[in-house]
Amino acid sequence: MKVSINWGGDARFDGTTGTGHTYTMDGPEDHGGKNQGARPMEMVLLGLGGCSSFDVMSILKKTRQDVVDCRTEIEAERADAVPAVFTKIHLHFVVSGRNLKEAHVKRAVSLSAEQYCSASIMLEKGGVEISHSYELVEVE
């Protein structure tokens, strides 16, 4: 897996993935940026959320759950000192669907956290406290 990062001036950087997708990262105005993109640490959280959400949805599809939406809300805390690493991250999955079985959703979240999500497992091994929760929303 490869990515490249190109400086776009000031505190802006454009990251390009090996699959050809480009994402802009920028700093806040008080740090020389123009707020034209996500902060790099926000991108880490997006990667974590994408990895875990992909796992959860894949597992739920295999169990034939009628999911119509899955939203993952992530909150993180960072150390006060430099480097301002993540110390705690909480992922909350909101799974909407018809006749969803709570046991299947609970299992999907657990399997992602404990076995499949490389990003989550890597961050935990680095000392980040990661927690998970979920809620089911029944739709008509």
Automatic annotation (TrEMBL):
Chain residue ranges for the region called Disordered: 17-37
At the top level, the lineage of the source is: Bacteria
InterPro entries found in the cross-reference section: KH_dom-like_a/b (IPR015946), OsmC/Ohr_fam (IPR003718), OsmC/Ohrsf (IPR036102)
Q: Which SUPFAM superfamilies does this one have?
A: OsmC-like (SSF82784)
- Pfam families cross-referenced by the UniProt entry: OsmC
Q: Provide the protein name.
A: OsmC family protein
